[in-house]
Each structure stands twice: as C-alpha cells, then as structure tokens.
Model the fold of this input.
Amino acid sequence: MEITFEEKIFENRKRKPDEFSEIARELRRDVIKSLFLAQSGHSGGSLGTADIFAVLFFGGYLRYDPKNPKWEERDRFVLSAGHICPILYSTLARAGFFPVSELATLRKLGSRLQGHPALDTNLPGIETSAGSLGQGVSIAVGMALSDKYLDKNNRRVFVLTGDGELQEGSTWEAAMSAGNFKLDNLCWIVDNNDCQIDGRVRDVMSIYPLDKKFEAFKFEVITIDGHNYQEIMDAFDKFIESHNKGIGKPTVIIAKTIMGYPISFMKDNYEWHGIPPNEEQAIISLRELQ
Done:
C-alpha cells in the first residue's frame, strides 16, 4: 500500500544526520552542472547553503506536497536571496516538483528557471518572486501575519537571506514587525558566510553583532554551524517546538557557512559570489563531489 503524504513527512523526520550528506552532494552536483551549462549565475551561496536545503526540504521540517504545490496546509519557503536560486531549483526538482532534466535550462531564454525566482514562470514550488535584496523578509512577514492573525492556521513560513542582504534597511523594519507582532510561525535563516559580491561583509558594511541585534528585535536566536547536519536539525526542531508552544517570538537561525563549500578553489572566496565554473572547473568540482 502506498504511504500517505502525512506518513512520508513522519518518515523523513526519522532521518539520521549522516543521511543528508549524499542528498546535499546531489544538490551541489546539480548546481555545478546547471551553472556550467548556463555560463551565468551564482556559485558561492548556492553551494554553501546546500546542507541547509537538504535538511529543510528532505528532513520533514517543511510541509509540502509536490503533487499538489498549492496545498492549503503547506508551509512556505521564501528565498529572499533570490540570486542563489540554482540550489532552490535543484531542491525542488529532486523533491519532485518538476523534472530534473529541466535544470539544464537554467537562465535560458523562455526557461521557467530564470536567474531569480519568478512567479510569472509558473514554476511549481515558487512562493514569491525575488530579485531586489531586502524585500523577501517583508513578504515572509506578511505571510506569517496573515497565517497567524487572519487565517489563524498552523502554517509556518521559512525565509532565507544572505548576510550582506542585512545591510538593507528594509530587513530591519521587517525584523521589528516580526518581533512586535510575535510571529512565532516565522523562521528566518541567515546564510552567514561573511562574503558579498565585492568583499567581506564585515569590511564593506559590518552587520555585527548579529545575535545581539536580533535579540533586541525580540527574536529567539539560534547560532549554528551551517554544515553540521545535527545542528541544523536541532535548530529546526527548536523552531517547531517554539511554534507549537506559541512562545510569541519569531526565530532566527544564524547559520555560519562557507561560501563555495566544499569545492577546494571556491571555499571562502567572495569572488565566487556571482560567477559560474568553466569546463575545467566544473570537472574538478564534480570530481570533488563524488
């Protein structure tokens, strides 16, 4: 007998930390291939967040149904850092939202896989368009407000931003709103690799100390190693527990990641923020991801 969708979610929650390693490797291989074929796009952040995507989407933490993308009881994921959409596209394809073969069309004319997520492409699994950094958190806060106070449902909203994105003032207006309205159904993930397109975040425009700032905005703050599966799982468990208990505080997960991880020549190099691998680099990367 085929298991129900709810049973599948429960089974995913039983995964052990080391089971995510191969999932993340597969996602990273997809990213390398699609970016090489496109010869355009963002490598660093896409690779660096793969472990987070693997746990969130394949660990039973995000409730979704690829056969029914508009399922009313689904949780929602907002990619505010829209430029790292290659990792989102790979994740959605591997989760069954659309054929994996479509990943080869990244950034091609007429493709549903544009350089930033776009609602008008009708790609299943995309919850909002993204492009201008700083907007996604406000959208996610609006979703969480609606779910908690208007629809009064049990949905959760996850949003992922880069750390350089926090230099945008609108992100802190959204943070203030989230804390003020006690949005315990909101989980904000910060990809904290300290890299942005033209240097180190701490040098371009420092955003630190992040934990103290979010505490001041009435957030439950969790700081983790963004490549440690157990820590990622524990963080999502704490958020879900907080939501279920109704603690009245949004959660932020500050994930310490390494840009370009684990590719030897990309790791912790901000110059890989927005460039794809050439043929030789793609071959080396795929070899390292075997």
In short: Residues 20-38 form the longest helix (19 residues). The longest strand covers residues 186-192.
